[in-house]
C-alpha cells in the first residue's frame, strides 16, 4: 500500500516556498514515485482539501483518488495544522488502510511568534505584539505556539509515532537546505532533476517592515469602524496604494513609530530551551536534520504608546480616507 504524505506546515516555516518548489518539480518527484497533484490546489498548496476533511466530504470518488493511486501522494497546506484530532481521525478512518505520514516543520517559538503576530495583523488584527506575546507566555504548556509537542502528540495518537516526520526548519534555513531536507523527509533522493528557481514575491509570504505593520494594525481598527473593512482588506489596499498616499502624513507617522521602537533579542528564552529539551527527549528520532540551537537574533518592536501622540488620530483618519477613495476609484475602473 502506498503512502499519503500530509505536510501540515505550520505557518511561517517556508510552506509557500516548498509548495512552489513542488509544483515546479512535479516531474522529478513523480520519477521517484511521489505525486504532487493539482487536485485540491489553491495558489500553490492543497488548501481546499482542508474543507473536504472538516466538512466530512470524503465520498467514494474522493477516497478512490487516494486508495487507487499507484504512487505515493503528497498534499501540502499550512491550513491542515488547524484541524483537530476528530478531523484527523476521520481522515485516517476514511482512507484506511492507506498509510498516512505527517510532515511537520518545527521552528523555535521566539523566532516564530513575531512572524505569526504579523500574520494576525495582515489579516485584520489590532493586538499589539507585547499583548500577543504575553498571552502565549502566560500559558506555555497549553500554547501550541510555544509547545510543539501538543500538536505532535495528536499526530502520534492518530497515526502512530513512526508516521510522524519532523523537519528542523531553523537548521534547514541556516544551511540553506530547506528543499533538499524536505525531499529527504519524503523519502526521495536529491538529484540534478530537481530545479530551484529564483523565489519571486508570489512564492513568499514576506514580512512587512515594522512601521508598515504598525500602520496597518492601526488602520485595521479605524477602517473597520469607518468603512467596514475586515480581514486582509486594509493590508492589501495599503500595499497596493502606499506609493499614492500623502508622503508627508506617512513620513510623520513613521517618525512617531520610530520614537517608540526598541530592539529585543530573541531566540534563547526559557520557552525556547524548554521546547528544545522537550523535542530532544520525545521526538529526536523523528527529526531528520536536528541540530541543537541556542542562537539569538535582534527584533525591532514598537510599543503601542506611539498611538497616544496628539497628531496620530488625524493622520490615521486622513490615511484611511485616502486608502478608501483610492480603492473605490480602482474598483470603479474595473
What does this structure look like?
The chain is α/β, with parallel strands linked by helices and 334 residues long. It has a domain at 3-108 and 147-203: Rossmann fold, CATH 3.40.50. Helix content is 49%, strand content 11%. The strands form two sheets. It has a five-stranded parallel sheet with strand order 2-3-1-4-5, with helices on both faces. Helix 5 (85-94) packs parallel to helix 8 (149-159), helix 12 crosses helix 15 (312-333) and helix 13 packs across helix 15 (312-333). InterPro entries: P-loop_NTPase (IPR027417).
Q: Layout of helices and strands, plus pairs?
A:
Blueprint: E1 3-7, H1 15-24, H2 26-31, E2 34-35, H3 48-54, H4 60-67, E3 72-76, H5 85-94, E4 99-106, H6 109-122, H7 129-137, H8 149-159, E5 164-168, H9 169-174, H10 178-185, H11 210-227, H12 233-241, H13 247-259, E6 261-266, H14 270-283, E7 297-302, H15 312-333
Parallel strand pairs: 1-3, 1-4, 2-3, 4-5
Antiparallel strand pairs: 6-7
Helix pairs in contact: 5-8, 11-13, 11-15, 12-15, 13-15
Protein name: Sulfotransferase domain-containing protein
InterPro entries: P-loop_NTPase
